[in-house]
Amino acid sequence: MDILLQLNSYCSKINTKEIAYFAIEKPEKIDYLIELTLSDKYPTNARAAWVLTTIMEIRKHVCEPYVDVLCNNLKKIENISVARNYLKIISNYRIKEEFHAYIVEYCFRVINDSGIPVANKIYSIDIIQNLCKIYPELAQELHVSLQENINKSTVGFKSKAKKILKKDNG
User: Fold this and answer.
1) What is the DSSP letter of 167?
2) Domain ranges in the chain?
3) DSSP calls for 10-52
4) Which residues touch 142 (CB under 8 Å, ≥6 apart)?
5) Is residue 77 classed as helix, strand or coil in its secondary structure?
6) Per-residue pLDDT tens over the stretch 69-106
7) With 0-12 CB in 10 A as exposed, 13-18 as middle and 19+ as buried, what is 150?
8) DSSP notation for 108-155
9) Residue 152: pLDDT band by 50, 70, 90 thresholds?
10) In Å, how far from its chain's centre is CA 83?
């Protein structure tokens, strides 16, 4: 299968799954998909990122070896939908300590930026919550960010924020 041709031919869940299953069988193709996500060629980069997320949803363990690469590449991503898929994947795995500081900073920037779509914010919140297990002091900073943004955000963000604030406040 020519992944680039397939990605550019049409965009559908079926096509995305076909490419995902192909890449699962040929792991070197996952490297190629990651390379495509770093491209500035839209929509190819976004579709490649969608395939990576689909791979994770089909066979979670297949993406685990690539989490470090995704964490490292996150700073290079300019396309918001590619970033969303990276965040979704990263939120499902343990992050190596060497990436903690950068990922925390990145996620708080996303949460506090009114121009970022809610899905990116939700995955960033999930990542911060996961890291709160290691760094409990992040919980207070997360609460402050949620409280500052709760009234100027979408229903989805408000719902997520209220659940976290209610759970953590007992």
Assistant:
1) H
2) 1-93, 96-170
3) ---HHHHHHHHHHHHHSTHHHHHHHHHHTSS-TTHHHHHHHHH
4) 111, 125, 128, 129, 132, 164
5) coil
6) 999 999 999 999 999 999 999 999 999 999 999 999 99
7) middle
8) HHHHH-TTS-HHHHHHHHHHHHHHHTT-TTHHHHHHHHHHHHGGGS-H
9) confident
10) 6
